[in-house]
Write a structure and sequence with these properties.
single chain, alpha/beta, Conserved hypothetical protein from pyrococcus furiosus pfu- 392566-001, ParB domain, 3 domains, five-stranded mixed sheet, 10 helices, 10% strand
Amino acid sequence: MTEIRDIATAVIDPDSNVNVRKSQVAESVATVKSSIAQYGYWRHSPITVRPHPDKEAPFEYEVIAGQCRLRACLELDLAEIPAVVQDMNDDGAIQQSWAENEFTSELAKSDKAHWIHKIVSRYTEEGRSLPDARRSVAEFFNISEQKVIDYLPLTALPEEVKDLMDEGRLNVRDATVIAKHTYSAQPEQAEQKMKERVEWIMGLDTDARKAARKVISQLGHQAL
């Protein structure tokens, strides 16, 4: 049975390199903070931490999952927080953080894209082929290989376009086609073209969007 311990909030590092949730943190913290202030902390929802891997760090633990709950408690000056301590390496911590965040509240699409791209890049730098890296990442995060393929290009999108995607105003299918087939020798020109294509495709109905994706896929940078 997993042991839940009360750990001092001051000894947990909230700025974790293995916590996969990077987007929409402030909004989530505000929501959690309001709930805790009104109802108190729910003990049945402990955060997950590990012994801090940096022995020189001024913290005893590093948060793996539950950073929004931890930050809310810190802002409310709560001395302790229920936590489960797990001793794991970076890969295990990233996998655990992904799984827990997906279970409690679906990760932002930009966060998924970031971590998929990060691990694929690491594998290819180690000498694996791109197809092999994609298959391995699918296994790593327990997702389909098609999802890896779809999300991989999304890191190229401008931040404001990622925000539209995270807000649900731009779907992943449209975003993937735009990111994959918009390119230029100048990064600024590519970003501007992506923004123009996003504005264009968001103004279309469902059937027209399907046709627009086909046009962009076929014509690449020559399409609108």
